[in-house]
Amino acid sequence: MSDTTNNNTKPSTLQSYVDSATGAVQNAIGNLTGNTGDQAKGQTRQEKADAEYNASQAAAKLPGGTISSTGAFAKDDPNRTEGSWNQTVGAAKETLGGLVGNESLKQSGREQNLEGQQQEAKGQIRDYSHGLGDRAQGTVGSAVAGLTGDKEGQIHYEQLHDKGKTQQRGAEVDIQKQAEAKEANY
């Protein structure tokens, strides 16, 4: 489903922006005219828009992939999984090397951990960029298919958009978690 379509079954980022702006205008008009009904309706519309926006941004990380609020699943780039594994093994080697006084094992673990971080970052960037590309292609393709009356094509492109959005959100979730972890360590 494209972000410009709101069929009440899938959260839409763009629709949440439109609803929020409409609610703000309605609230402001109510304030100017003293009409509490318009104020309340505007406030309610803004709150609904906030909830829709939050739902459109939701993504849950699962082992090996991400599932979004739209129900789409996107598998992680293999570099993300392998990089995470290399970080874990590297950290274990580094710790064990430190415990037993083996500098070679400690250094090997440190290097493997760093290689894993780079590998995971490469996968995140790949997932993020592929997600953006699929979202754009899905949005344009869905619009064109809708204009030409190609219902099957429209469904295909909406699914491509949803998958891309999920893939992008999954990378964003991991990047944000890593940034917060680094911040906490400083």
UniProtKB/TrEMBL annotation:
Record-linked InterPro entries: CsbD, YjbJ_sf
Composition-biased stretches (Polar residues): 28-43
Basic and acidic residues bias: start-end ranges: 123-133
SUPFAM superfamilies referenced in this protein's UniProt entry, alphabetically: Hypothetical protein YjbJ
Domain CsbD-like, chain residue ranges per copy: 79-128
Taxonomy, superkingdom: Eukaryota
Listed Pfam families: CsbD
Disordered: region residues: 28-137, 161-186
Stated family: Belongs to the UPF0337 (CsbD) family.
Protein name: CsbD-like domain-containing protein
